Amino acid sequence: MPKTIYRLGIDLGGTKTEVIILDSEDREIHRRRVATPRKSGAEEYRGILTNLNELITAAIKCVPREADLTIGIGIPGSLDPITGLVRNANTTCLNGKPLKADVEKQFDRPIGMMNDANCFILAECRQGAARGFRVVFGVIMGTGCGGAICIDGMIHHGHNGIGGEWGHFAIDPNGAKCYCGNHGCIETKISGAGVEKAFYQRFNHHLKMEEIVMGYHNKDPSCTEVFLQFLKDFGCATGGLISTLDPDAIILGGGLSNIDELYDSDLNKIQDYAFHPQAATPVLKNELGDSAGVYGAAWIGI
Questions:
Q1: Alpha carbon distance 276, 220 (integer Å)
Q2: 3-state DSSP call for residue 150?
Q3: Could you tell me the domains of the chain?
Q4: Nearest CA to 172 among 190, 153, 186, 154?
Q5: How far apart (Å, rounded) are the C-alpha atoms in residues 185 and 176?
Q6: Edge-to-edge, what's the strand order for the sheet holding 249-253?
Q7: Measured by CB atoms within 10 angstroms of the end CB, which terminus of the chain is less buried, N or C?
């Protein structure tokens, strides 16, 4: 008789780390969320490893001894397919580190590891807003900006393992410098951190993204100027995406996905930039909320 399989997933984010365990029926039996350690230099990476160790160790205790267990981790970057080292992570202490190998060494077992945007769209295709669509592009708009492609329920990684890295497509060579080294990346334009930086550079005053959105709703002139530019940049980036990939649907996740104006075709400016006079690609809000990433991580476990 085959063993029951339980799935442990971890969503490792820049500000929070979440763990979940699903039983054989994909029912949640354990969940915990903690702050991601923020330290300086090598201490930050060691802190993240310790944090993962503690979360996984505690979660495993919820699984019956006789059951099989898979472990998957979603990270804010990707693994180099040749070296296995983390690259392109906006949690920069992870870059160049053998995170997968280090966690596997801690638990003496293989684990699955994938970009968090991939985990997000995999979950939305399986149980969320993307059900029924064949070619789907997933966008995470939060502190940073990530993307992923899912075709027929499978993640498209691409020849170089960077399929969907839409956030680091440069759309403004004269724009702000991105941590990746380029200027004017999509991430610098439509992420929360990017919009906040743009507001400060324009008005020499710090506001959080939610404050900028609120100011727009309250008709504050400075907030309105920056917010409308954000919508224009979103339309430019998304219109270009539609012209390139022409997906069946685009699903938005992350904290900024709660901005209603992104789904209003009169405001999001996509029609101004897509290479089609009446592009009908649906832009949809996620259905799983911030649970999508951790569910997807559980389903990539090995």
A1: 34
A2: strand
A3: 5-118+291-299 (3.30.420.40), 132-285 (3.30.420.40)
A4: 186
A5: 8
A6: 154-155, 145-151, 135-141, 249-253, 283-285
A7: N
Dihedral class, residue 105 (left if φ above 0, else alpha if ψ from -120 to 50, else beta): alpha
Tens of pLDDT, residue by residue, the chain (302 residues): 567 899 999 999 888 899 999 999 999 999 999 999 888 777 999 999 999 999 999 999 999 988 999 999 999 889 998 999 999 888 889 999 999 999 999 999 999 999 999 999 999 999 999 999 999 999 999 888 989 999 999 999 998 888 998 999 999 999 999 988 899 999 999 999 999 999 999 999 999 999 999 999 999 999 999 999 999 999 999 999 999 999 999 999 988 999 999 999 889 899 888 888 788 899 999 999 878 999 999 999 99
Alpha-carbon distances, residue 287 vs 57, 193, 251, 279 (angstroms): 30, 24, 9, 23
Backbone dihedral angles phi then psi of residue 245, each to the nearest 5 degrees? -100, -30
* Secondary structure (3-state) at 251: strand
Helix (H) / strand (E) element for 193: namely helix 192-203
Q: Which residue has the tokens 């995470």?
A: 140
Which structure tokens are listed for 239?
A: 């219109």
Strand blocks (E) in 55-168: 68-75, 78-79, 86-87, 112-115, 135-141, 145-151, 154-155
